[in-house]
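input
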Amino acid sequence: MEPLKEMFNHEFYRHFSYAFGEADENFSADAFFTDVTRGMEGLSLNGRLRNTSLVLRKHLPGDYKKAVDILYTAAPALRSGYTALVLPDFVALYGKGHFDLSMEALRYFTTLGSAEFAIREFLKTDLAKTLDVMHKWADDKNPHVRRLASEGSRPRLPWSFKLEEIIKQPSLTRGILEKLNADEELYVRKSVANHLNDHSKDNTAYMLQLVKSWDKQHKHTAWIIKHAVRTLIKKGNEEALMIFGFGNDARVQLSDLAIDKTDLHLGDSLQFSFGLVSEGADPQKLVIDYAVHYAKASGSNSRKVFKLKEVTLLPGEQIAVSKKQLFQDLTTRKHYSGKHVLEILVNGKVLGSTGFNLSV
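output
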């Protein structure tokens, strides 16, 4: 598989250089291409992105407004997606002294890729002023802009720094989330759910109080809440479970937990199965998950919970459940040799476990 950093390859830079050459007669496409590709092999994905912004600054007018005008002109000819983050990154680096102009630029450039990282630089510099703009963006007709209002203000956005002030005062983003809590776009709803999930890690009581005040009869709002409390449900948080009628004290019996092998190699799949029998006097809503304790290089273990299914069991009802789990290295997980443990969870509580060995 080609490394992600190869999104910024020579072919990309030829196209990028040409687009800016067409946008500004004084822009030397050849000189820019030579500068931006010099030493690029040793740079990471984000290193290449940042280097593009830095080199671009050398080849654009020193006047920020003129430079941004050229970005606007070149933008339609550029590829959308991750590489388009160069445009908001340029704004984040050089636009803090031109707040209004930069906000409008980020509002536009986010429609081509995303300005979620760039806007955080302005939040870090002037939180109140930037949040005021983002509250307005939550009403925007464009779903990319609405998503930016939520995603850019997430307390714990991956690949970015934490917003400590929002962690301390989670209500600062409440107005944004409430405007978007029934958004028609799944793209936006996912961001709202992830924003709330961030809050659950630092301000659990606040987050639960907030979502309980929302109308979960609305299908879009219910979807957001369900995905927002996913981490708490996996941990067996009673209040989160009760929001959707999952009892914390599930009256079920685990039976016949079995795995198809006890020794695996990297690339193998583990097939496991088990049964559940309801011992309750009334119907029970159950969320069934499983967890894998992965061996780490240090010899300790790292636990990861996976969703399995949701069911309602009648008194005395039995079900059989099976699942196949692949053990393969990913960009987000590297496997190590050693003992692993599989756990079965119902409503956040471990009902049983079994062990197996993985060889890498």
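quick obs: The chain has a mean pLDDT of 95.
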